[in-house]
Amino acid sequence: MFLTVIIPHYNNVALLGRCLQSLSAAGLGDGLQVVVVDDGSSPGQHEQFDALIRQTDSLSIQPVYNTVNRGASAARNRGLLSAKGRFVWFVDADDEVDSGVLRQWWPRLEAVDERVELIHLGPMVRWNSGRVGASLRPGETHNDHGQVENATLADIITPRSHCLDHTTYWISRKFLSRNPDIRYLETVSILEDSVFVLRLLDQTRHVAMAHDCRLYIRHDEAHSVTSGAWSKEKSAGFVPDILFFFTQLFGFMDRHEELTHVVDLYHRYAYVYMRVLAVKGVPDSLYRSMFYNPVVRYGFIPRNMKERLLKNTMIHAFISFACRVLRPSHE
What we know:
single chain; Spore Coat Polysaccharide Biosynthesis Protein SpsA, Chain A; 2 domains; 12 strands
């Protein structure tokens, strides 16, 4: 068995069916194992889940049941215990796989060197009301001649690689068995997947890449922790986990200063998450350290108008903080 797909699921049978159908349509037979972890869904969902598995008889599906809802990270870690494939792939229940692309690339992916610990795929495709980033609809195939090639971290970490998207990696099961510290953090509610990838990249030594292979389709209507509207309270609640992620990212950057584009990782995530926190009105005192670092330590260099506005916001926040701290006392 070559690949195990691990899917956490919680009260989401309707969209899970779409995901399983996309895997079934690839027609990979015994080469594919699917582990679906029901993470404490309601009893009614259990019945629908069991019926769905019976209906998808063309897939080798192993259901795993958590008696209580423990979160996606715990479900992924639990699913890993049942994996039998040479590689594992973590997929979300409310997204899907491009079956045509998977079928087309399968022989090339199966032929990777036995030493390969990590395969970096092309970036995910975003599906939003019929708009697909890769100019393909699910089920269509690329007429390409792309290959799976040996790579280094320098090949993977590029300005537009989106290399911290955990869904763009197939991971050697033996590699994970040898490194039990590389697991999803169950105490973190946001960016836990990116922390997981940082730990992967820190430890792996034999990497392959297939950048033209865009297998994963992200549905923008999906309901996840980070989707939908963020209230001010919700944003503030995420601050500790976001700070933790940036702490991990800083450490990774310091350990890999030789990588030309490692700072681009910071720029990408700083722009997204600092903008969200600022727009949602979270007090800057909660994330001031994140504002300070890109301006002073890493020299945040804007690439477009949005990032120029962000830099102005960051500088303003830092100057405001400095003025409050340094303002002479008149008491």
